[in-house]
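Entry:
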Amino acid sequence: MEENRVYAASCPDYGQAEGAIRALVAQMGGMGRFVRPGERIVLKANLLRAAPPESAICTHPAVVEAVAKLVKEAGGTPVICDSPGGALHKEPVLRGLYEKTGMAAAAAASGAELALDSSTRTVSLPEGRVLRQAELIAPVAEADGVIDLCKMKTHVLMSMTGAVKNLFGVIPGLSKVGYHATHPDQEAFADVLLDLAGYVRPRLSLMDGILAMEGDGPGSSGTPRRAGLLLAAENPLALDTAAGALMNLPRRDNPVLLAAERRGLAPSRIEDVELVGGTVEGLRMADYRLPGSTKASLMDFLGPLARPAERLCKKVLSQTPRIDEAQCVGCGICAKSCPGRAIDLSAPGKKARIRPKACIHCYCCHELCPQRAVELRQSWLGRALTK
């Protein structure tokens, strides 16, 4: 089945990205399968924050430029779009975001538009499990279609960032904080992501894994890794299933796949994915460094008791954010992005302080801190359970 098929292509550097992407899309039947003449197509890049391309935090502009050209050639109007975390969804913020991430240059080179409309729309999600309505950024709500241009990255809360997680960016700026507050654990937040993905229904998902991220991603605390890989699929869930396997991420540590299985959505197992362009064994990166929050060893030993044991021991297993005062510059981004209002700044420019009892362990502070000033620490028992 086409919806279970994922296309893979080796691509060692971004200078070869356009050729590799054209070949991938051609294998899928051409961009004309996904875009009709006259349509406005949002290219939903992963633009977590205003970071340069070499940081591996955001989708690379070469990937966005290549897809924008294909959309133009198919007769559509490509619109580069995202709403960064931890920031107001306002035009000046968006202009700075597009400039720093290279999206402005990608738009100029491809003829794409940059989405600068900062208005929002409230939409109904009749098929949502946990969301019945949501506030979305207007360019996405009003688009004829969406192409999901995600990044291959690790994520300290959700283990990996892929095609499904990338669609959380359709929520405007600081409004994301509320969703973390009301759905603080992995299971609940995975359901939020699947509800949003079910509404957006991207026509095509393409993952930038040329320069990927490993370790404690998805922000500055992660480490760029040259993976040299592009993945594409019609079904974002299929893409994430394949990407997780290639990153050597145990399925038990992928909450989106577990939530999908609970809902009866497929594919959520690599055995049900048809990989075109390589084999899982041949492309798997066995040494891919995962976040410190993933479980192993003793959790394997516990078998079917692992999930209830994890719930009972959440405070022990969870990593706890701490401020590295030597790195903190008092910018306040962590405090603004904290759903639990657990972070204080006594005055502008002062060091941040985290109140542990108020922390909900969503790791937004760690994800969005540009100074790598938020460390994640774990108790000795937690370290034993997650070795």
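The first strand starts at residue 5 and ends at 10.
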